[in-house]
Design a protein that fits this description.
The chain has 217 residues and is of the alpha/beta class. It has 7 helices and 11 strands. The chain folds into 2 domains: 128 residues, Nucleotidyltransferase, domain 5 (2-Layer Sandwich); 67 residues, no CATH class.
Amino acid sequence: MNPIPTWLIIDTSGRQGRLALADEQGIRVEARLDDQRRHARDLTGTIQTLTEQLGIAVAQLAGVMVSIGPGSYTGLRVGVISAKVLAYATGCRLIGVPTFEAIAQRHAHEPVVEVIGDAQQKRVYYQRFEQGQSGSLSILSHAEWLQKHHPEALVTGPGVVLFEAEWPDTIRRTPQPECDARCEDYWSLRDRQTDADGWTLEPIYLRGSYAEEQAKK
């Protein structure tokens, strides 16, 4: 008897990575990785632990969904490479999900949602979603984003906790920890995404790593 098709969800876009196994019943088991961003060290062992908890083998996974950013440069690279290797080794399906899209869909009832993340040096990753339609993803200075901010928008995303102390009370925002993507957010988008090519799937990088930017200077 074949087991219920089970998917692995990998989100290493933030400081604390998240992994989960999900099937038609929803999220079945979930784990968080070390918050010191040792994703490469912990990821494989945690996947093994989750599959053992559910009583399946890694080779039985139907697919893997992975966050592709924007977010932590190193974390995204580790997560995407791990997902690609797993899909190649087991022959399972592979889907890459933009992190901000996963966060925004939780607030689909809102007319306007703005998702922001930390792009370092007082800059934000920024994307606006209106009536379910996504705008372009960009990097703005925090001051530029304040000028661009839609007055009716709900602001969410990992950048909220970093910048909200500088905002007027008129800016609506979601409280922590509701600003970060959750595994169930990715899973809810499974039917809206197309399978990715394991050879070409890459994280969303709008800027180089810190080392690369310093080298350019």
